[in-house]
Specification:
By secondary structure, the chain is of the alpha/beta class. It has three domains: 143 residues, MutS, DNA mismatch repair protein, Chain A, domain 3, CATH 1.10.1420; 78 residues; 205 residues, 3-Layer(aba) Sandwich (Rossmann fold). A seven-stranded mixed sheet has the order 1-11-12-13-9-14-15, sandwiched between helices. A hairpin with a 6-residue loop joins β4 and β5. The chain is elongated and about 120 Å long.
Length: 521
Amino acid sequence: MHSDLKALEFDALRRLLEKLAATPYGAEAARNIEPAPDIGVARSMLAAVTAARSALDAGEAPSLKGAPDVRAALRQAAQPGAALSGTALHNLRQVLIVMRGLKAAVCVRPDLYPGLKEHLSPPAEIENQIDRTIHPSGRVRDNASPRLAGLATQMSALREEVIDVLKMRLRQPDLRTAVSTDMIVWQGARAFLVLPADCIELVAGVHRGKAAGGRNHLVEPMEVVSRNNRLETLNGQQEVESQAVLRETTGLLRAHLESLGRVIDALTWIDLALAGGHLSVHLNAHAPRLTENACLSLDRAFHPALLLQFANGQGPEPVPLSIALDAAQPMLVITGPNTGGKTVVLKTVGLLVTMAHCGLHIPADGDCVIGDFSRVIADIGDPQSLYHHLSTFAGHVEKLKRLLNEADAGTLVLLDELGTGTDPEEGAALAMAVLEELARRDVYGIVTTHLSPLKDFASQHEHLTNASMLFDEEKLLPSYRLSIGTSGRSLGLVIAEKNGLSQEVIARARQHLRRIAPCHE
């Protein structure tokens, strides 16, 4: 399904979902989540999110912590002759460890991952090879190959020999009282004495500069120069052999990149599902029923942002929305006052339908049914663009052109203030023509308007149904409740009066209204 995500402010939901992801894989998927290409994929993710919510509620959710991003390393491994670093290989091992936990979780809740279970288990030889060759610190193990083991033995013996020689030199009478026996440091493969400036001349050897801190000096006694040289040679051989081990291990990965790619895909899916489960908990949401028919039924549903604002103490308690669109009532024309909640209805419907087609739970107190719409087209808010030199009306016209080019029987349209931005009579006539064309194509949708002629038009058209946002005229407050079957009043003068406009101006306005619209209530 294609949906107008920007008009529905879908990025706010993406950001929230991203924060709930546990890995870089799920976070990226959340940043880019969009409606599934078909209802089957949406149902699979919906089932996965339901399984994730069940695991979270039971305190049995698998942990994904410690799964670093290895995608760049796998791309590098695809190059012939490449040698991944020990750290990169260790990171891959961490991912494989996490996958073992996920495999166990999927065994308990199969809906968590719809793919083949072998996708959760890469060849065991990969983890075994990394285990055998790479230390948890990320360095190559000393026994990763027979040659490395031999080099490690030689280097260990030679280091001990160098230390013994240096300690013996420090115990000689000319240095014994001047320095302590722990004044030995290693830089790379070479060992040095750390001596005060007044002791440098006492030792025959090579002055290698100042030590850390700048007060003492590094001196390499002649007795250990040849041994240090030998250590450097062995160290170089060790580095060459370590690279050979890394190259060999990387070659093993290269042979299984397709399998590892499926592992990453599975990890991404499950992390996104778990993020969806966390979102479901935050919103107290549940799974809607996705059906092949184009229809919509929301029973006491809420806009997610309004729910979260209320939960955080930053807004009033939201009013639930109940609304239905079906073959008998495919399109609603909603009228009512400004600030009455008409636009919120459009955004709530559009966002919840889009969430359902992304496989996410939706916040509602009752059961909800979402049809298999092929697209959601939304014209919500002021489309005026200074950059594109469009007026408000011209911006609406551009949206209407796209609407009439794309809308069909599988489309859900959400149009805010249809026909506004120009002469009211011309705007109403244009709106009627657009609604007639949408009706001819069996399009489903919701339209809001302040244009009185559209109320009568909707009441006489079999494809259209009037609806209104209720308003408490005694308290002069909106109720934000939708009433199906009756048209509403804009109450522009009432609201202007409530907001402090001059009583004299309001009185004159009512006189003018009686003159130009005698039937206006």
